[in-house]
Amino acid sequence: MKQIVNPLVAAAFVASAPAHAQDWSYSAALYLYAAETETSIGDRSATLSFSDALENLDATFMGTFTAENGQWGVSLDYMMTDIGFNTATPGPSYSGLNTSIKTRILTGYLSYRIHETETVSTDLLAGARWYDTNTTMTLQAGTLPTNSRTTSDDWTDPVIGLRSRFSLNDKWSGTVVADVGGWEDRETWQVLLTADYAFSNKWVGRFGFRHISVSNDSGTNSYSFKQSGPIAGMTYRF
To answer: From the CB of residue 54, how many other CB atoms can be counted at a distance below 10 Å?
Structure first.
């Protein structure tokens, strides 16, 4: 049964943080995730490379927001993509597979610093990942008639993880984020590795690699979504 979830639920983390506004530091970023996408509904699956995704992309938005105060922090990451594409199928039974993937992923963390030196800091992360999809996979008619499968659902999974930051010099630093979560027949996890370059005190460029995976086996058809590939963006600190 479809769950009704407020997609802004992760924003509630802000209310639990200390109320010393003058001590908070903030950053906001826009980024491009050049990912290969794999999705499946039951025994039906499709894979789309990033270059093909650019040709078939209808809409996208990707951004993050982070606020930190001493050992405590909150962060939100939002990704939205709308892609439609066709792939070939073997044999004469069907003339092709048409896939439409509309996804929204919102991840929210409350962070607490558990280790810090001059060059390395590590935060414990706890939060949730909200996933919303409207995915249709249609086998086009060949010797057999057209056959479609659709998953339209949203759900929220708790996640826990770690984030480490490494300072290399005045300009270069690195970030590693890993989390895992799920509930009953669902699971999700991600890994993010970036190299960060400070153009100034306010502007930081980031590039690296990200993998994110979401699966849900609770319905009549199992569903999975995976993305892997390079990531690049620009962060503004204020």
So the answer is: 12
